[in-house]
User: Fold these one by one.
Assistant:
Number 1:
Amino acid sequence: MIRRVLVANRGEIACRILRACREAGLSSVAIYAENDRTGMFRELADESVLLEGDSITETYLNGAAIIQVAKDTGADAIHPGFGFLSERAGFAQAVMDAGLIWIGPSPQAIEQMGDKMSARQIMKQAGVPVIPGVEIEEEDEERALEDIRQAAIETGYPLLLKATAGGGGKGMRVVHAQEELESSARSARREAVTAFGDGRVYVEKLLQTSKHVEIQVLADTHGRCIHLGERECSVQRRHQKVFEEAPCASMSPSLREQMGQAAVSAAKAVDYVGAGTVEFLLAEDGSFYFLEMNTRIQVEHPVTEMVTGVDLVREQLRIAAGEPMSVGKLELRGHAIEVRLYAEDPSNNFLPAIGPLAVFRPPTGPGIRLDTGVREGDDVTPHYDPMLAKLIVWAPSRAEALQRMRRALDEFVVLGTTTNIGFLRTLCDTEEVISGNTYTTMIDDVFPNGYEFNPTQKNLDVALMTAAVAETTGMHRVSVSTSSSKEGISSPFQTLNRRYP
Amino acid sequence: MQHEFRFQNEVHEVTLERTPKIWTFVNHCAHPKEDGRVRIYFEDGTKAWAHVAKVGDVWWVHHSGQIYTLERIEPGASADEQHGGLVAPMPGTVLEVLVTEGQSVEAGQTLMILEAMKMEHRVVASEDGIVTKVSFSAGDRVEQGVNLLEVESPQ
């Protein structure tokens, strides 16, 4: 039984979870850092507790303090959200040791899936296809190089060299031909030693123009483990998803069943409990390969909710309380698309932006859902991830969903802080997105010289006229609040040794 | 009524005409509303909305699904430069200092690059001269109105 949930997160996902608690009739506790004092998520909790300190290790990553707050406030369960402590097996264990309910899978499952190599081994044993590749265990440079040459013959070109201990693209090299192999291998090993103190690399077949397709799974403690279909998240910039949809445009019912079964096998192999996502690469020929499993709720979970009608966060709460999941027979209905609104400058290499949200007017109307943690008047600060909101649309068909997304983006007014709204709108008009022929390196191919905003003369004239009229008549002015912090952006995902949410 | 705005590093001049109720510019008409919006009327009879807000010296305009950041150039903005001191137009961060003290510079030469509100601002010499003082270095935060550097013209 759960009565009171502590949400160990902030921003948009904290709001999402706190609202689910309210709907489920559970009381809730939020934790916050000083620089989140005015955060919207605080207002959605029944109680909120300040965690003192300037760095995230003292606040949102401070497991011991968070567990203490849970005890002090009478919470009986902790929901970690995504990022921050959500995939720390040690924290999950500590929560359970403190006699609290951990809303997530077991620490063992987190650990097994968190380590790339152990996850790969477990998947192989469970019969889940993994990307053809060879682990090079040899430590000695020259002998390792010989092993890499042998492995390259097996996988073929182009191939990918990855640091075994790695993450974040460090120690990673694309090798197109045999001539490049030796120098690439030496530099990948060098980089891996510097970054991780471990020069072991891993040789993997490079799958080009492949899609990123992931399967949502749900497992309860009553022996039921199901999949809820796929999400396609191929449109990425710098390995960060920006445009996600369900279902995948090129999916067939039989392939969905195959991938779904593979995902269920993956979850069962680690005795998974709760909501999780199994990520795959889907090659052009319809073959698919396990990438990794995210042992938590994901950023893009709403698109699955829209097409299945299942409230995933509500199910997480139910499953953690020991109840069976409430999902009946699943039927996918219509099409859902999510875009991630970031405070960033797409025409300047997606550099994060800060500033006041002087005007923040989201679109409304049929088939539109907005998940956000900000509102008009808030400041976008450099302290956390620059994601402002997730705009999700649903419509009976993919074409209509795309039309609805265009309309919604056109209506979305954010003034005072640079955002990627215009870029997302442009994306909706690209041939690849319209046809559904999206793939993971698409943005680099479509915008080889980066994104540039080139307005028509007429539109620019209207903007200039508007500014001139506003200046002359003394319209809407907003005072600028100066941000004193010089710290870098700390994304909740930087705390994970994983690629992207 | 005449205004100058900088958009994507280019300066645009806007001369507004006024009829009793409405403003016009290049065949387009605008009618400002109380709520921060402007009604736009086109020659062909079609209409549109624009949303507008000012943050610092920058006008943010939303029109037809796109956002325009238009930095207003104050009339006589070069006044500061007449006494040799160059001041920060808004709070920001020094990205780059391109000159050193004692260096001679030419009119129009970029002396320093500032970043404010995620936009780059070039601080340019208004006349030939010698840099006599550089008050900040790359990475420093500067408040609005502080003296960034001084250039003296050799008489």
Note: Confidence is low (pLDDT under 50) at residues 479-501 of chain A.
Number 2:
Amino acid sequence: MSDGPAQVLRAQDLVKTHHGEGAPAHAVRGVDLTLRQGEFVAVTGPSGAGKSTLLHLLGGLTRPDSGSIWLGGECTDAYSEARWAVERRKRIGIVFQFFNLVSNLSVADNVELPALLAGASPRQARTEREELLAELGLVGKERSMPGELSGGEQQRVALARALVNHPPLLLADEPAGSLDSKATREVMRLLSRFHRRGQTIVLVTHDARLASAADRVISFFDGRIADDAELDGTPSRGTGISGVLELKD
Amino acid sequence: MRLHLLALLARGPAHGYELKQDLEQLLGSAYPQPNVGQIYVTLGRLEKTGLIEGEEVEQSSRPNKKIYHLTDAGREALRTWYEETADEPRVRDEFFMKLALAPRTGLAEQITLINKQRRQYLNTMRNLSKLAAAENRDNRIAQLLIEGAMLHLQADLDWLERCQEELEELE
């Protein structure tokens, strides 16, 4: 094995074709990917490039036609749907564009439910929920129903739900896709904060501004990785930031 | 910078160093350390063209300083500036010509060029994000300048994406 932080996830030669009406859509066409602990990776590309399909494959929400995924070094080829569901409670948290909260459960219950399902005591679940909601600026919203909250608030609840079991990996599929710019900044600020504390994150976004918060950006085109770049904040050439901000005479 | 200095003088007379401080306060970290030498040179030129007038003020313990004020001609120039709309940002830039000519030279691959350019834009975008986070949130002008730069860069990145989509199909 190579050195460096531990592998959280490894994908090898993932292929997924959607068979709907009309011609088959080759959404993911042979993707190799290694995610290490503590990385913040953005997957960006045009809509229809297959980046959401890739994220769904990584979270076991869709199964690949071929190829394999290792979670924490363990091959998932033989995992059943039920096993994947368990992994999504314990090892993989997911947030979606449209939040996917349970609409007839309160905010508190939405966050506590996955903790209880994962075997936490009601008291533990409650403590975790209280801490997360406080951290995410949602104190006082515990008894609200999701429908009573703004989009930004719902996404923060979804983030709390995804993180309540301290999963090693957080997957975010266009988490700001349905938010206004203020709520977008808030969600990005929170993702960056969790990342600074060591959370491994994969963020799928078509928005380059969001992608630049990550320290590794994968450009996804036509089902393939076109480029995989570490951002170190230093432009290779050119005037960089001062050139962009310069006021001309 | 000529018109920026004129605009700063519209409120009332000031000396060069005050104008530098005004600019710093207005734009915050979005425009770090305006070059004071450049400010003095520009003020000299503005005076020569009659848009401002300087007046030496004696200082007991320090060298004399020159306080400038706007002339009628200067105020008129400023008025004209506000009547005109600004030019669009560049559309056909250096990178575009590199990309367009690459196949003829045989010296570079278009997709490679796009990937390299994207990395640079993303790094700059990252720096802008950091700058925006570090800048005082209440300095709206500075925040808007940074946000404008980010939106331009985002458009450039979107456009690179379009180039990649189109050119990959040809491969």
Note: The radius of gyration of chain A is 19 Å.
